[in-house]
Design a protein that fits this description.
- The chain has one domain.
- Strands 2-1-3-4-5 form a 5-stranded parallel beta sheet, with helices on both faces.
- Helix 3 packs across helix 8.
- Helix 10 links the parallel strand 4 and strand 5.
- It starts with a helix and ends with a helix.
- The protein is globular.
- The chain has 11 helices and 5 strands.
- By secondary structure, the protein is α/β, with parallel strands linked by helices.
- It has helices spanning about 5-15, 40-50, 60-70, 70-80, 85-90, 95, 105-120, 130-155, 170-185, 200-210, 225-229; strands spanning about 25-30, 55-60, 160-165, 190-195, 215.
Length: about 230
């Protein structure tokens, strides 16, 4: 089985196992790389604001699904890593921006060395050392791209009118990527993003730069979210 086919099979298996295809009017998504030991308080509040209305809603915790696919050791290494390297954001770049493809070799090597010396030299998780991590990082972008495509199809199958993402930590590019793919599959869906990464001018810039995102929330949204929906 080719690498891409093997990854595709694994992603489909994980998504199917968790039964995500129930229909809903509002679909909220927690994308990687949110720490998987926590749930999203923000998305819980937004869903709660709709619970006493006639608007159906659902939350997809995509972060732990992605962790299950790539392996929890690698996922935790990224979420607990040095934020300067931004490997989490980088891994979803090709999903959001197909035409962005510079030479990544030095960046990948630097990130692999950082991860190895900070997190793996004692645990011996990667017997081939840094080059093993380099291979994992290179594969990560392919996995992310296939994950976005498969997850977007699952979301579309739920027939939502609104799809929203939270964006904090290293979630911004992953959230932008999934909203872009959702919009490509169904331009009628209203796309929303909110969180720490959309405060003030960050939110204004996100909406102005990415035309597939319709609304960005800056600050608390739970008191007005049900009116918007």
């Amino acid at each position: 089985m080719k690498q891409k086919d093997s990854i595709q099979y694994n992603i489909s298996k994980v998504l199917d196992k968790h039964g995500l295809k129930n229909k809903t009017q509002v679909c909220l998504i927690q994308m990687p790389y949110f720490p998987i030991e926590y749930t999203s308080l923000a998305l819980g509040l937004l869903k709660g604001s709709l619970d006493n209305t006639n608007i159906s809603s659902d939350v997809i915790y995509a972060a732990p699904l992605f962790a299950e696919i790539i392996g929890f050791d690698l996922y935790n290494m990224i979420t607990k890593g040095d934020r300067v390297d931004m490997i989490g954001e980088w891994s979803f770049v090709s999903s959001a921006f197909n035409d962005f493809n510079p030479d990544h070799s030095k960046y990948i090597q630097h990130s692999a060395e950082l991860f190895f010396y900070l997190y793996n030299h004692e645990k011996k998780q990667y017997p081939n050392g840094i080059q093993n991590i380099v291979a994992k990082i290179k594969e990560l972008r392919l996995v992310a791209k296939l994950f976005v495509d498969n997850l977007a199809k699952v979301i579309i199958s739920k027939h939502p009118k609104i799809v929203g993402c939270s964006s904090s930590f290293e979630q911004h590019i992953p959230s932008i990527a999934i909203l872009k793919r959702v919009k490509e599959l169904n331009p009628e869906i209203v796309t929303i993003i909110g969180g720490a990464n959309t405060e003030d001018m960050l939110g204004v810039t996100t909406v102005s730069e990415f035309d597939w995102i319709d609304i960005a929330f800056s600050g608390e949204a739970d008191e007005v979210f049900h009116d918007l929906c």
